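pasting for the record
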Amino acid sequence: MGTPLPSIPAKRYFTIGEVAELCGVKPHVLRYWEQEFTQLRPMKRRGNRRYYQHHEVLMIRRIRDLLYDQGFTISGARNRLQEPASSAHDDAPPQVPESVHGVVTDDAMEGLCADSASVWLDSHGVRQELFEIRALLSRD
């Protein structure tokens, strides 16, 4: 699996270079994934500069996990990301690696207003960091 990814700082927007470092992939890979995964739609500003939000960084980490660690193809990863979360077990929470908790799908985001979505994303970012801290502490 390699080295663990760095924790995601509490920021609203990330440049493509920052996301590349946080997710362990090169910027050209991120640009390619934008074409392949419709969930990735970074905001573009002057000069076509990309700015990713926290939920997109989490989605990129999920995509990276599916492609690099679990061995999915692009098509297989795309299908896995589109599966409803409840398909695993009806009464048990889905079993996913700790590194991908808090991934937000387009369908989930559409049902939330902008303010509550922001609070939801922030709380899941904190949860993600707590999982990472727990993993670091359990290595002792």
